[in-house]
Amino acid sequence: MMTIISAPVDHIVATNDGVDVRFVGIEVVVDVPVATAGWLGTHGIRLHLEGVRSPETQRRDEHYVAEMSQWANLRERDGAETAGDSPAMPGQLVLGPVRANISDDIGTTYRCDVGQVAGSGTDWEATWVYLPEPPDTARFLHIEFTVAGEPTGKTCKVEIG
User: Fold this and answer.
1) Cβ(123)–Cβ(89) under 8 Å?
2) Which ranges of the chain does DSSP label H, i.e. alpha helix?
3) Mean pLDDT, 10 residues at a time, the chain of 161 residues
4) Does the residue 95 lie in any domain?
5) Could you tell me how far CA 14 lies from the centroid of its own chain?
């Protein structure tokens, strides 16, 4: 179990393209779903973020529904190849660039290996998995949040328990 020692009061750790992003939690996970075979079956850290619902996210959701309808109509009329890929969910565009630089009190640096982002309707969520698993001797994680690799100035300190 991890305990948040310090964080912004409202847990807002980034703002990207007009949408606030909230730090929701962090945990050690077993059987990391990684793309790199060398890490298969290992443990890591899962970071949870969410887009704060607002009139802006609602506007984007409505726009996405209209885009999806247009895309589906084009796909039905002219075929899948002509229609191309479906429109990106608005949460993917906003939350995708929001990550963190994570380190611990003994000098371990963690790297983001895999993630999942959703975001239309009610679920503006991102989950990022960082490797490796914290060493047994590490007591604290320092999390520095970023947007497109640039620090947001927001940090959290978490006790590893």
Assistant:
1) no
2) 55-78, 80-83, 90-95
3) 91 97 89 57 87 94 93 92 90 94 96 81 85 93 97 97 79
4) yes
5) 11
Question: What's the Cα-to-Cα distance from 20 to each of 38, 54, 56, 130, 151, rounded to whole Å?
Answer: 35, 9, 10, 22, 15
Helices (H) and strands (E) in the chain, counts: 3, 9
Instruction: Give me the CATH number covering residue 129.
Output: 2.60.40
CA angle 1, 94, 87 (to 5 degrees): 120
Report yes or no on 30 lying in a domain. Answer: yes
Q: How far, in Å, CA of 148 to CA of 151, rounded?
A: 9
Number of independent structural domains in the chain: 1
Q: Are 45 and 29 in contact (CB under 8 A)?
A: yes
Return d(Cα 28, Cα 57) in angstroms, integer. 30
Is residue 154 in some structural domain? yes
In a domain? residue 75: no
- Reference 95, options 50, 149, 144; nearest CA is 50
pLDDT of residue 117: 87
Considering the entire predicted model, what is its pTM? 0.87
Q: What Rg value do the Cα atoms of the chain yield, rounded?
A: 18
Q: How far apart are CA 44 and CA 32, in angstroms?
A: 6
Range of the structural domain that residue 146 is part of: 2-60+88-160
